[in-house]
Amino acid sequence: MAILRCVAINDEANHQLVHAVMERSRSIAESLRGLGDDELHQPSELPEWSLLTIACHLRFGAGALFRMTRSARQGVPVAYYPEGREVQRPRTLVPLPGESPQDVVESLALLSDELNQEWSVLDPGAWGVDVIEPHDNPDLGPIPLGRLPLLRLTEVEVHGTDLGSNLGDWSEIFISTVIPMRLEWLNIRRANHRVFDTELEGS
After folding, report:
1. pLDDT by residue (tens digit) across 43-54?
2. pLDDT of 200 strictly over 60
3. Which of 42, 25, 2 is nearest to 141 (CA)?
């Protein structure tokens, strides 16, 4: 994951990334709030995923990155999937037992706001702190905290488009900063003969 270390992100770019994540996340939540339960079960632009699947996926990602941010600042090992990717990921794509589709949407909105609030108050030095994963449960690889907003912006920009809700164009910083980083990361991962996940790594 060396590319995540070598991409230079200055303070202003970090601010722009966090703001872009916030804006896109809120647009997604507002778009989904306008739909009924039956509509949320309708297919998205992503094959085999409904709008609700995307909402569940983004909801888990917001909570996971919040946990990882807190743990990184405390120097505590943390996993994107605490129970392991293969075991836990399928459950993150569906509502919790007894949870309605609208409950998922409201949870997504709440967790997205909590994540954005957490990132908005970080001082410049905090972004350089490493996210430490458990040795027996690696997923993202060794990365500094400042790379998490790039990964989150990928999720909300791409999956926002998958909703088919005409949320608007991708943000300028996503096009100018995040996409080049992701393409270079793809090249490195292919060179290492590893499978590239076109979604957020670890999502």
Report:
1. 999 999 999 999
2. no
3. 2
- Which of 72, 81, 70, 32 has its CA nearest to residue 53? 32
Please determine, for residue 196, whether its predicted confidence score (pLDDT) is greater than 70.
no
The pLDDT value given to residue 185: 60
Query: Could you report the per-residue pLDDT of 120-141, keeping only the tens digit for each?
Result: 999 989 999 999 999 998 888 7
The set of long-range contacts for 73-78, using a CB threshold of 8 Å and a minimum separation of 24, is: 73/126, 73/129, 73/145, 75/129, 75/132, 76/132, 77/132, 77/133, 77/134, 77/135, 78/131, 78/132, 78/133, 78/134
Q: What is the model's pTM?
A: 0.85
More confident residue, 1 or 123: 123
2-191 belongs to CATH 1.20.120.450: yes
Structure tokens at 114: 């909590």
